[in-house]
Amino acid sequence: MTNVLQQIQDQRGKVLITNDGATILNKLEVIHPTAKMLVEISKAQDIEAGDGTTSVVVIAGALLRACQELLDKGIHPAAISDGFNVALKKAKEVIEGMG
Asked: Structure pTM?
């Protein structure tokens, strides 16, 4: 896997170069509530595991995109939420079965 470095420039022109997703997200000034939620997911992952922050944001983004597609098809938000709860229960069963 190629190690890609990202560059961020703050308001004063200071440049930060990093490949750490948590650092990148912490330096962003986020306004949109959904984007704020993704930053919080990243922070929680960093606190819990110390790694995988980019992965959780990518997965959450994919789930949000899937939700939007379902909403666009006219599916009620409660039905989407119920579907995610069914998926969560199944995922837990699969993980517990691995142990």
From this structure: 0.68
